[in-house]
Amino acid sequence: MVHKCVFCGTQIKTYGEKTLSLDFGLQRKYDWTFTIADVHTPIIGADYLFHFDLLIDLKKSILIDRKTNSSTIGIVKHTKTIAIKVINNNHKYQHLLIKYKQLLTLPENKVIPTTGTFHHIVTHGPPVTTKARRLSPEKYNAAKIHFDYLIKKGICRPSKSQWSSALHMVLKKDNT
After folding, report:
1. How far apart are CA 89 and CA 9, in angstroms?
2. Does the global pTM surpass 0.70?
3. Residue 73 needs a FRET pair 20 to 30 A away by CA distance; which of 57, 87, 89, 96 works?
4. Virtual torsion, Cα 85, 89, 95, 99, nearest 10 deg
5. What would the mean pLDDT of 147-167 be, rounded to a whole number?
6. 65-69 contacts at long range (C-beta below 8 A, 24 or more positions apart)
7. What is each CA distance from 83 to 35, 43, 107, 117, in whole angstroms?
8. CA nearest 84: which of 33, 49, 38?
9. pLDDT by residue (tens digit) across 7-66?
10. What distances in angstroms separate CA 20 from CA 4, 23, 27, 30, 42, one per listed residue?
11. pLDDT at residue 66 in the model
12. What is the DSSP string of the chain?
């Protein structure tokens, strides 16, 4: 079976349906019948979130279950395409999604990693860490502004890794 993308007309192969029970660690299981599609990234749609009364807090990277009043930490993953898509071509709001598709995509100046390549470095022994160094208030503020910018653009993300190295900052020739 084939479904057609509302925005670009791309055909997506589907291979039927499968009922699965997902456990996000939120004190209950979530049984759902998923459509098996030929996609790189699995998609859980708004219908799934609505049915189970789940909320996504992107700023805190958490999934909240309003029925059990519990939450779990997740990872915000950036993909090449970010948009709202309808697989059901007979959806009553499909014409609005097509008419206003510019409102459903990221602005042009938003940087999204496009390589799709993931690196894994094999390590041996305990993690290597260095102690953080104190920064002057000027350097601290400059670093904070720059890291906030990189996080907002999706270039980097906060990490809780055991591996770390101290930040070393120097002035450029133009004193920035």
Report:
1. 11
2. no
3. 87
4. 40
5. 84
6. 65/24, 65/26, 65/27, 65/28, 67/28, 68/26, 68/27, 68/28
7. 19, 12, 11, 21
8. 49
9. 456 777 888 888 988 888 888 889 988 888 877 777 777 788 889 999 988 888 888 999
10. 24, 10, 17, 8, 13
11. 92
12. -EEE-TTT--EEEEEEEEEEEE--SSSS-EEEEEEEE--SS----HHHHHHTTEEEETTTTEEEETTTTEEEE------S------S-TT-TTHHHHHHTGGGGS--TT---------------SSPP--PPPP--HHHHHHHHHHHHHHHHTTS------S----------TT--
Residue 139 in tokens = 């350097």
Spatial contact of 68 and 26, defined as CB atoms under 8 Å apart: yes
